[in-house]
């Protein structure tokens, strides 16, 4: 159950981030602050799944269109590692925004 929640949460975060970036000028905040936008994308496992690979490719393509960077982590099926990856992405984001 926790794995499904984690995966659903990661997918929801990605969807919200991409949707929000579609509705505004992606460079507006960057122009004001000088910071670049980096989207963290944590995956439980990419290998062996065409569906996840396609999702990742779509996210990378959309990020490129919007002029933002995407940082992908692959936990290799290890949910503990994925939780650590998410914590790392959050920490990196907080240091970039300060």
Using brief descriptors, characterize the structure shown:
Rossmann fold, Peripla_BP_I, 4 helices, 98 residues
The main β sheet shows up as: 2 strands, parallel
Gross geometry: flat
State the CATH architecture.
3-Layer(aba) Sandwich
The count of helical stretches stands at 4
Describe this structure in words.
This is Sugar ABC transporter substrate-binding protein. It comes from Luteimicrobium album. InterPro entries: Peripla_BP_I. By secondary structure, the chain is an alpha+beta fold. The protein has a single domain (2-22, 37-97), classed as Rossmann fold. The protein contains 4 helices and 2 strands. A two-stranded parallel ribbon has the order 1-2. 64% of the residues lie in helices and 12% in strands.
A few lines on this structure:
With 98 residues, the protein is α+β, with helices and mostly antiparallel strands.
List the helices and strands and how they pair.
Layout: H1 2-22, H2 28-33, E1 38-43, H3 50-66, E2 69-74, H4 79-97
Protein name: Sugar ABC transporter substrate-binding protein
């Amino acid at each position: 159950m926790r794995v499904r929640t984690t995966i659903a949460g990661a997918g929801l975060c990605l969807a919200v981030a991409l949707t929000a970036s579609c509705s505004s000028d992606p460079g507006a905040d960057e122009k004001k602050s000088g910071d670049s936008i980096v989207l963290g994308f944590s995956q439980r496992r990419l290998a062996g799944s065409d569906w996840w690979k396609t999702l990742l490719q779509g996210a990378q393509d959309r990020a490129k269109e919007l002029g933002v960077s995407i940082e992908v982590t692959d936990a290799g099926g290890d949910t503990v590692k994925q939780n650590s990856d998410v914590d790392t992405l959050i920490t990196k984001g907080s240091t970039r925004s300060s």
